[in-house]
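Dear colleagues,

For the upcoming journal club I promised to circulate an example of a predicted protein-ligand complex. I picked one with protoporphyrin IX containing FE because it came up in last month's discussion. The inputs are reproduced below in full, followed by the predicted structure.
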Amino acid sequence: MNRLQGVSGAMEFPGTVRRYDGLAIFFHWAVFLLIAAAYAAIELKGFAGKGSPARSLAMAAHEWTGLLVLVLAVPRLLWRLVRGAPPAEPGSRWMHLAGEAMHWVLYLFIFAQPILGLLTLNAGGHVLTLPGLGLQIPAWVGPDDALKDQLEEIHETLGNAFYLVIGLHAMAALFHHYMLGDNTLRRMWRR
Ligand code: HEM
Ligand code: HEM
C-alpha cells in the first residue's frame, strides 16, 4: 500500500485519521483531569466548615493539583512546539481560526492560572509545602495584603470565566463528533 509522510513526520496510510501523537493525547487528558480535580477541590472547600480539617485538605488538594497542571504545561507546550498538530479536519476558514485561537487561549490559561494561584498564596504570606515531606516551593513574592487581594480577584475571575471557555471548547469537540461526524474528537482520543 502507498504510504504518505505526514506533516508531523510520522508515516501515515492515506484515508486514516491523522491523530495527535500519544504524548500529546496523554498531556491533554492528564491536564484535563487535574484541572477538573482542582475545580472540584475548590468547590468542595466551600462546603467544609471554617477551620475544619476537610477544608484544609480541600485547599491543599486544590493547590497541588493546580501546581501539577503547571508542571505538565511546560513539557506539553514544548512538545506541541516541536511536534506541531495534525492537519485540521475539513471545515471553513473561520472554524479553523476559531479552533486555533481557542487552543492558544487554553494554553495560556494552563500557565497563567496556576502561577496566579501560587502568587496569591505567597502574597498572602504562605508558601506551598508538600505535606509529610516538608518540601517547600520557594515564594515568588513576599507578603503584601493589597497585592494578595488583587491577585486573588484575578485568579478567581479567570477561574470562573474558564468554566465557560472550557465548556465551549468541550461542546465544540462534541459538536464535531456528534453533529458534523468528523474525526476531531477521535484524533485527540487514543492511538
Ligand atoms: C489550573 C489550575 C487552577 C484552577 C483552575 C484554579 C481555580 C480556582 C477557582 C475557580 C477558585 C475559586 C474562585 C471563587 O471562589 O470564586 C480558586 C481559588 C483559589 N486558588 Fe486556584 N486554581 C488553580 C490553581 C491554583 C494554584 C496552583 C494555587 C496555589 C498554589 C491556587 C490557589 C488558590 C487560592 C489561594 C484561592 C483562594 C481560595 C479561597 O480563599 O477561597 N490555585 N482557584
Ligand atoms: C481543562 C480542560 C481542557 C483544556 C485546558 C484543553 C486544552 C486543549 C488544548 C490546548 C488543545 C490544543 C491541542 C494542540 O493543538 O496542541 C486541545 C485540543 C482538543 N481538545 Fe481540549 N482541553 C480541555 C478539555 C477538553 C474536553 C473536556 C474535551 C472533549 C469533550 C476536549 C477535546 C479536545 C479535542 C477534540 C481537541 C483537538 C481539537 C483539534 O484537533 O482541532 N478538550 N484542548
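Two points we might discuss: Residues 24, 28, 31-32, 35, 80, 85, 88, 99, 103, 106-107, 110, 166, 169-170, 173-174, 184-185, 187-188 surround protoporphyrin IX containing FE (ligand 2) (CB under 6 Å). The longest strand covers residues 128-130.

See you all on Thursday,
B. R.
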